[in-house]
# Entry
Amino acid sequence: MNVYITVFAAIMTLSGSAVASPAFLPEDPKRPADKIAHDLNIAPEQFTACFRNVSPAPQGTRPTAGRVHSNKAILLSYLQKENSHITNVMLDEVMDRYRPGGRKAQLPINE
# Structure
């Protein structure tokens, strides 16, 4: 009987943690879209839609300067349509907070 209670408790713990895990984007599964959207004061769906035209550097690599500038222009333009108070500085701060490797991971390879 104790084995069943232990198994049940383990299943409940795992299912509870699965429910609490953040929503990740299929385009960039390393960042929690719901937390980023919250910090930018937009809906997660709006962030996901804005991020669809951005092309992050492949995992384990750093982006080129051209990719950084292109992605920033695309993302900032879309996001400002959703919330005109989003600035370049605000976007950098929020994205760096959730970017694996932080700001350093976004520095272009030619810098």
User: Anything to note?
Assistant: The chain has one domain: 23-106. Residues 23-106 form one domain. Confidence is low (pLDDT under 50) at residues 2-25. The chain is about 60% helix and 0% strand.
